[in-house]
Amino acid sequence: MTTTKIFVCPLVIPAKSPVAFIILFALLMFLMLTDNIVSNISLESAAFTQKEDSQSFQTLTVTRNIKSDVVLPLSLTVSTKNNIVDGDSERQNSLVSSLGVREKHGIGKFRRKLPEHEILKSDELTKKFHGRVLEFFNRECEVHFFMTWISKVGSFGRREIMAAESVFKAHPNGCLMILSRTMDSVQGYRILKPLLDRGFKVIAVAPDFPFLVKNTPAEAWLDDMKSGKKDPGVIPLAQNLSNLMRLAVLYKYGGVYLDTDFIVMRSFKGLKNTIGAQSIDVVSKNWTRLNNAVLVFDMKHPLVLKFIEEFALTFDGNKWGHNGPYMVSRVVRRVEGRPGYNFTILPPMAFYPVDWIKIGGLFKMPKDWAGSRWIEAKVQQLKRQTYGVHLWNKQSSKLVVEEGSVMERLMAQNCVLCKHIYSS
């Protein structure tokens, strides 16, 4: 509160001059009123400015928390302030829009440190990672398979179990390792126990992420991310960590990487150093985009090292797919045909026989005789020509497998537990 001091100078006023006295009194009152008004205006202005600054600061704080602390699982619907964001495009547009606001106000250069994530933590369990990998695969495994799971253990559901079942249907003597801290737990063991009880070799192992990227171009990338020199971006962190982890584990150990929404239909035993095309040009028949949902590579393969290098050098956490399918496409386009890189590109029918836009059709039951004929023809085509079917979980995770559908047929033919087919 502002204190107003009034200095009164001694005045000689004739006792018999009431008019002069009234004028002097009115002047003093006017000066006091004016000073009080100015003080109040100043206080109100300062209060308004402070309130506006406080609101602005609170908005920036919320923006930082949303960008850096919230880790969005790959296939979950996210609810923010009761507004449901569902699907890649809406989520990406929303996040990119927020980023644009930050840049407009001069905060686009703000570097956020890599948020704490379970998969990045190191402890006594992760220190045993390398030894557990060597011990597990030293069991006369027909084929070494890897999957990654960075979401909560409770999210590992029927769809993911079906993917694991299909691995063992086609490879009874194969070995499947799921890189996951959350699944490397009592609850995770219970989920996998039905497969273990039938003699299948499957295990969930908490990965040692720093060890996996050690002595690769991604080692410096991870250090820069942790120190805040690089921005993790607005794309869910789990997606980009999975993109890198699959490359790092194949480079260290070699084997087959599969997404957890991939149904295996044929043995991978004959595949070597292979990647699949997602799309081709209808005229030239040349591939237009590759995908990294299925990767088959030997240990220390130079192309996988190039993938890791490209990931680290061109990482952009604000562009969907930039560090995944688009990244492997960029690298292969540069090195294809060069000596020293021996690998095979299979056509879309091998791993991606149904485009993500049309995947819903596989889940529908036939409505008439023509529909039944189409389903039968599609099932036979897939059995003859494909190694498996990528289900594009972001588009199909909420779809119900209807009786008599292509998916019902595929799951029934490629399961080993064969329970709850219609609840996927």
TrEMBL record:
Xref: Gene3D superfamilies: 3.90.550.20
Name assigned to this protein: Alpha 1,4-glycosyltransferase domain-containing protein
Domain of life: Eukaryota
Record carries keyword Cell inner membrane: no
Domain Alpha 1,4-glycosyltransferase: 297-419
Keyword Ribonucleoprotein: no
Ranges annotated as spanning the membrane: 7-33
Phylogenetic lineage: Eukaryota, Viridiplantae, Streptophyta, Embryophyta, Tracheophyta
Entries under InterPro entries matching the protein: A1-4-GlycosylTfrase_dom (IPR007652), GlycoTrfase_DXD_sugar-bd_CS (IPR007577), Nucleotide-diphossugar_trans (IPR029044), Put_A1-4-GlycosylTfrase_plant (IPR044789)
Keyword entries, A-Z: Membrane, Transmembrane, Transmembrane helix
